[in-house]
Specification:
CATH topology of chain A: MetI-like fold
Number of helices of chain B: 9
Structural class of chain A: mainly alpha
Number of domains of chain A: 1
Number of strands of chain B: 19
CATH architecture of chain A: Orthogonal Bundle
Largest interface: A-B, 19 and 25 residues
Number of helices of chain A: 24
Low-confidence stretches of chain B: none
Oligomer: heterodimer
Distance between the termini of chain A: 15 Å
Strand order of the largest sheet of chain A: 1-2
CATH superfamily of chain A: MetI-like
Mean pLDDT of chain A: 79
C-alpha cells in the first residue's frame, strides 16, 4: 500500500447515457481507442506477470521454488502477513467505528475540519508515515528524547520502531479514514427511528445495536474491513521501515528475495501467492461493494443530524474527536517540527551545542559532505522524482484519455464485439490496483531487463511502473467527466446562440478540463509517493524522494536523520496540497472509494 | 384514573417553546387524535409519551403511576411511524415477531400470535415476504401488526398514513379504526388531517404552537369551533369582526354585513360578552342556502364557483367582505359578476369565536 488513496475503487458513476456519434455506432473507433491502453497493459502488466509465472515454475538454480514455498520460514511469513493484517483490521475498526457513529449522527462545530483532517493520512506516501512515527516515537523521536532529558537517561527508554506495535499503529493511522467514510456515510442513512421502533417493541439499547443496527451496517462494515485488510495485506513501506528485520510480510519477503538474495524464482513464487490472495480479496470486495451500493439505494437520503445537547454528549464527542485528531495529527506535526529542530549533538561532539530551531537539515539537502563522486544529494532526488512524476502524468493521460473516452462514449455502441470489448476492459483496467506494487516491480525486473524488451537503462522504466499504478485512478476520474459532456448539454448552448467553437470553449472544456487536472494530480502525487515498485527498480544513482528517505533513515547520525525528516516534510506538503486540489476540482460524480 | 394522563407538560428546544402547559387524558380503550398543523408539537408529545424525549416540566402518568423514569423499552407502548420503519433485514414474520422475542415469548406462541396478527391486518401468507418488496399499504399493515403483536397498553401512531396516496388513505383509515376498535386498543393518533382524525378518534385534542386549543369529540369540535384558529384549521374562512349591541335575550351582533340575534352561547363565554365588546364571528360555510323561500340576509356578488362533486364551492363578495360557501351541487348559482341572495338562520349559521 502506498497510500495512493483507494479513492476510485468501486463502480464508475453510471447512469448517464452518452449518445454515440455515428463513428462510434460503427464500433470501429472503440477498437482504435482501446489500442494504446491494451498494448500498454499487455506489455507492462500481463507480459511481466506471465514472466513471473514462468520463472516461478522454472527449476532454475537446482530447486523448485514451490517446494521452498512450503518451508517453515516461508509459511511463517505467509502466516505473519495474515496475522498482522487481521490484527490491524480489527484495531482499525475499533478506532474507526465510534468516529463513524459520531460523523453519521451528529453535527458539531469543527466537523468539516475534522472530516478533512481524517482524510490526510490516506494520501500520504508510506515513507512519510513511517518517518512521521519515527519522529514521534522512534529512538530519536520527541517522546524518547523528552523522556531521556527528563529522567537523564543514556538510552531511549521506549522501543517502538521494529516492533509489531509500530506496524499496527501505522496501519490504523493509515486506514481509519476508510472506516470513517465508508461506514459513516452508510450509517448516516440509517433512520434512527428504526432503533426507536425496536426500543418501543421492548428491546434494550444493547439489543437494538445487536439485532438492528449491527446487521444493517454489516455490509458497510464488511466492505470497509475487507478494503483495510487488502491494504494491510499488501503493506510494504510501513513494514520495511517500522517493522525492521524481524518482521517480514510477503511483500517484504519478495523485496528481500529479489534485491538482497537475488532469488528470483522464489520471489516469483511468492508473488504468485500474493497475487492470488489479493485478487481473491478484491473479487469479494467488489461483490460486497455492489451490495453496499444496492443497500444505499434503499436509503437514498442522508438524514438530518442531531446537535450535541447534553454536557455528557458534548464531552464524549469532544473526547472522541479530539483523540482521533490527535492520533492523526500528532505524528505529522511531530515530523514537521522535528525537521526544524536540533535535539541531539552532532557526530563527534559530546554535547548539544546549539539546540532548538534550525534550518540545517534543509540546508544539508543540497550539500555533498564528503565531495564523493557517487554521492547523490537529496535535492537531486527531488528533481529526479519531479521528472518521473511529470513523465508519469504525460504517460497516464496519453493512455487514460482514450480508455476513458471509449468507456464513456462507447456504452451504447451497437456493434456487439465493441460492446463486449468495453464490458470486459472495465474490470481489466482495475487489475493493477489489485496487484501489489512490489509484484509489479518484480515483474519489471524479470521481464524488462532482457530482449525482446530491455528497458534496464531506460529512464522511462520507473515512470512506466508508476503509470501502471496511476492508470486506474486516471481512468476513473476521467470517465465521468467525459460522460457528462453530452449532446444534451450542447444543444441548449447552441440554441442560446453559441457557435460550435464557443460550445467547446465554454461547455466542454470547463467540464473536461477540471477532470484532466484531477487525473493529472492523481498521477503526479501517486508517482511522487510510490515506493513499492520504485524500491525494486530504482538504481543507486537515481533515487526518488521516498527511496532517499528510506536510505537516510537507515543511516546513523543526526544529520542524516534530520534530512530524512526534512525530505518527508516536503513530500507530505506536496501530497496534502495535491489532495486539496483534487477535492477542489473533482467533478461531483467521482466516487470516494 | 385508569389510562394515560398528561399533566402540565412544558418543553423547549434551544430556548424555543415547543410545548406549553399541555394537559389531556386518554382513558382505557379510547382513541384520541392529536390534531394540528406541522410544528404544533404533536410529535413532541408523542415522543415524550414514548420516552424518547423528556419534558422540562410536567408529569406523564399511566394508571396513576408516574412514567417519566421508565425507559423506552419498559413502557410497554407500541409505536407506529409515518414511514413504517420496518426492519429491512428481516422478513415479515421476523418483523412482527420482534417485539414478542424481546419480551421472551415461547416459539410456538410467537408463531401463533404472528399468524393471528397477519390475519387481522389482512396479510395472511405474507410471513416469508421480504419487507422491502411490499407496497406502501402492505408495509403499513405489517407495521400495524408488529406494533399490536405484543399487546401494547397504549399504541402511539405518528401520522401512520401520511406516506400513502389519498385513496388508499381513505380506505386504510377505516380498516385501522375497525382493527383498533375490535381489539379495544387504547391509542393516540397523531395527524394533521382533520378528516382522518374525525374518522378514527373518539376524542380529538387540537394543538396550535405547543398549546391545546380545544378538545372534545369530533362533532363537538366541528360544530363548536372555539376560536378563530380552530375554525380556520377546519376550513371555515368566513370570519369577521362584530360588535355586541345587546346581551339581554340572546346576543345581538352588528357586523358590516348586517345585524343578527343569536342565542346565548353556553359556558363562560356569555359572561365575557358585554354590550359594546368587539368579537369575531363565524358565518358557517355549510349552513347557508340560496333558496328564496328562506330568510335572506345578505346580497352579494358572485366572484367564482367551482364544482367539487357533491358540493360546489362558491366565492362571493359583499360589502368588501369575501365569503366562501359550500353548497349542494344541485343548486344553480348565478354566473360570476351576477348578484346573489345568501339565506341562512343566524341561530345555526352565526357563531361567536373566543379571542
Amino acid at each position: 500500500m502506498d497510500g495512493d488513496g483507494a479513492a476510485v475503487i468501486g463502480s464508475p458513476a453510471a447512469g448517464q447515457e452518452a449518445r454515440p456519434t455515428p463513428a462510434l455506432r460503427r464500433g470501429g473507433l472503440v477498437w482504435l481507442l482501446w489500442l494504446p491502453p491494451v498494448v500498454f497493459l499487455g506489455l507492462f502488466y500481463f507480459y511481466p506477470l506471465i514472466s513471473i509465472l514462468q520463472v516461478s515454475l522454472s527449476r532454475a538454480e537446482g530447486f523448485f521454488p514451490w517446494e521452498v514455498l512450503f518451508s517453515s520460514s516461508i509459511l511463517r511469513v505467509i502466516g505473519f502477513t495474515f496475522w498482522q493484517a487481521i490484527l490491524s483490521t480489527l484495531l482499525t475498526l475499533l478506532a474507526g467505528l465510534p468516529g463513524a457513529y459520531l460523523l453519521a449522527r451528529y453535527d458539531f462545530p469543527g466537523k468539516g475540519l475534522f472530516r478533512a483532517l481524517t482524510a490526510v493520512p490516506f494520501v500520504l506516501p508510506t515513507l512519510v508515515v513511517a518517518a512521521a512515527f519515527n519522529a514521534l516515537l522512534g529512538p530519536r523521536g520527541w517522546l524518547n528524547l523528552g523522556l531521556m532529558a527528563l529522567f537523564d537517561l543514556s538510552s531511549p527508554p521506549l522501543t517502538f520502531v521494529n516492533t509489531l506495535a509500530a506496524i499496527l499503529v501505522a496501519h490504523v493511522f493509515y486506514n481509519t479514514t476508510i472506516v470513517l467514510r465508508l461506514v459513516g456515510d452508510f450509517w448516516a442513512r440509517l433512520d434512527p427511528r428504526l432503533a426507536l421502533a425496536a426500543r418501543a417493541l421492548g428491546a434494550t439499547p444493547w439489543q437494538v445495536f445487536r439485532k438492528v443496527t449491527l446487521p444493517l451496517l454489516a455490509p458497510a462494515i464488511l466492505a470497509a474491513a475487507l478494503l483495510v485488510f487488502i491494504f494491510d495485506f499488501t503493506s510494504f513501506g510501513v513494514i520495511l521501515v517500522l517493522g525492521g528485520p524481524r518482521y517480514a510480510t510477503l511483500e517484504v519477503e519478495i523485496y528481500n528475495q529479489t534485491t538482497g538474495l537475488f532469488n528470483l524464482p522464489l520471489a516469483a513464487a511468492l508473488s504468485i501467492v500474493q497475487l492470488l490472495c489479493t485478487l481473491g480479496l478484491m473479487l469479494v470486495y467488489t461483490r460486497l461493494s455492489e451490495k453496499v451500493t444496492r443497500a444505499l439505494t434503499l436509503y437514498p437520503d442522508v438524514l438530518p443530524r442531531k446537535r450535541l445537547r447534553t454536557w455528557r454528549e458534548r464531552l464524549a464527542a469532544g473526547f472522541l474527536a479530539g483523540l482521533l485528531s490527535l492520533f492523526l495529527v500528532l505524528p505529522l506535526a511531530g515530523l514537521a517540527a522535528r525537521s526544524f529542530t536540533r535535539l541531539e549533538p552532532d557526530r563527534g561532539q559530546a554535547a548539544l551545542e546549539s539546540g532548538g530551531f534550525t534550518l540545517d537539515f534543509y540546508r544539508a539537502l543540497g550539500e555533498n559532505p564528503r565531495q564523493s563522486l557517487f554521492y547523490v544529494s537529496p535535492l537531486t532526488s527531488v528533481s529526479i522524482s519531479l521528472g518521473y512524476a511529470f513523465a508519469t502524468v504525460v504517460l497516464a493521460l496519453l493512455l487514460g484519455i482514450p480508455a476513458a473516452w471509449a468507456l464513456a462514449r462507447g456504452e451504447r455502441v451497437k456493434n456487439p464485439l465493441a460492446r463486449w470489448l468495453n464490458r470486459s476492459m472495465d474490470p481489466i483496467l482495475m487489475l493493477p490496483i489489485g496487484t501489489s506494487a512490489v509484484t509489479l516491480g518484480l515483474g519489471f525486473v524479470i521481464a524488462l531487463d532482457q530482449p525482446p524488451l530491455d528497458l534496464r537503462a531506460s529512464p522511462l522504466l520507473i515512470p512506466l511502473a508508476h503509470t501502471l499504478v496511476a492508470f486506474p485512478f486516471v481512468v476513473r476520474s476521467l470517465t465521468p467527466a467525459i460522460r457528462s459532456v453530452q449532446p444534451r448539454l450542447r444543444q441548449p448552448a447552441a440554441i442560446l446562440g453559441a457557435s460550435p467553437g464557443q460550445v467547446i470553449r465554454y461547455v466542454d472544456l470547463p467540464l473536461i478540463g477540471r477532470a484532466f487536472l484531477v487525473a493529472a494530480t492523481f498521477a503526479f502525487t501517486i508517482s511522487l509517493g510510490e515506493f513499492g515498485a520504485t524500491a525494486m527498480l530504482s538504481r543507486p544513482e537515481y533515487p526518488t524522494v521516498p527511496v532517499a528517505i528510506y536510505r537516510f533513515l537507515g543511516r546513523p547520525g543526526g544529520i542524516n536523520y534530520g534530512q530524512a525528516l526534512a525530505l518527508s516534510t516536503i513530500l507530505m506538503l506536496v501530497c496534502v496540497i495535491g489532495m486539496l486540489a483534487i477535492e477542489r476540482l473533482r467533478v461531483g460524480e467521482v466516487s470516494e472509494f | 384514573m385508569s389510562g394515560l394522563e398528561i399533566r402540565e407538560v412544558h418543553k423547549s428546544f434551544n430556548g424555543k417553546k415547543a410545548l406549553e402547559a399541555v394537559s389531556f387524558r386518554v382513558s382505557r380503550g379510547e382513541i384520541v387524535a392529536l390534531l394540528g398543523p406541522s410544528g404544533s408539537g404533536k410529535s413532541t408529545i408523542l415522543n415524550i409519551i414514548a420516552g424518547v424525549e423528556s419534558p422540562d416540566q410536567g408529569e406523564v402518568i399511566w394508571d396513576g403511576n408516574p412514567l417519566l423514569a421508565v425507559p423506552v423499552h419498559r413502557r410497554g407502548f407500541g409505536f407506529m411511524f409515518q414511514d413504517y420503519m420496518l426492519f429491512p433485514h428481516m422478513n415479515v414474520f421476523d418483523n412482527v415477531a420482534f417485539g414478542l422475542r424481546m419480551s421472551g415469548w415461547e416459539m410456538d406462541q410467537i408463531a401463533r400470535r404472528v399468524y393471528t396478527m397477519l390475519e387481522l391486518v389482512g396479510l395472511p401468507g405474507f410471513e416469508k415476504r421480504n419487507v422491502t418488496t411490499l407496497s406502501g399499504g402492505e408495509q403499513q399493515r405489517v407495521a400495524l401488526a408488529r406494533a399490536l403483536a405484543p399487546r401494547p397498553k397504549l399504541l402511539l401512531l405518528d401520522e401512520p398514513l401520511g406516506a400513502l396516496d389519498r385513496l388508499l388513505r381513505e380506505r386504510l383509515v377505516v380498516d385501522l379504526q375497525r382493527i383498533l376498535q375490535e381489539m379495544s386498543q387504547t391509542a393516540i393518533y397523531v395527524t394533521h388531517d382533520q378528516e382522518e382524525a374525525f374518522v378514527i378518534a373518539d376524542r380529538v385534542v387540537l394543538l396550535d404552537q405547543g398549546r391545546v386549543v380545544q378538545q372534545g369529540t369530533p362533532a363537538e369540535i366541528y360544530w363548536q369551533p372555539r376560536n378563530e384558529f380552530v375554525a380556520r384549521f377546519l376550513g371555515m374562512e368566513n370570519i369577521f369582526p362584530a360588535q355586541i349591541s345587546s346581551n339581554a335575550r340572546g346576543i345581538e351582533v352588528k357586523t358590516v354585513l348586517g345585524e343578527w340575534t343569536i342565542p346565548l352561547p353556553g359556558g363562560t363565554l356569555s359572561q365575557s360578552l358585554p354590550a359594546g365588546e368587539t368579537v369575531k364571528v363565524l358565518l358557517r360555510p355549510d349552513a347557508v342556502t340560496l333558496d328564496e323561500d328562506a330568510t335572506c340576509r345578505i346580497t352579494a356578488e358572485v366572484v367564482a364557483s367551482s364544482f367539487r362533486g357533491q358540493q360546489q364551492r362558491v366565492i362571493v363578495e359583499a360589502h368588501g367582505q369575501r365569503l366562501v360557501f359550500e353548497l349542494p351541487s344541485r343548486l344553480s348559482v348565478p354566473k360570476a359578476g351576477q348578484p346573489v341572495e345568501i339565506c341562512f338562520e343566524p341561530q345555526q349559521a352565526i357563531q361567536i369565536l373566543s379571542a
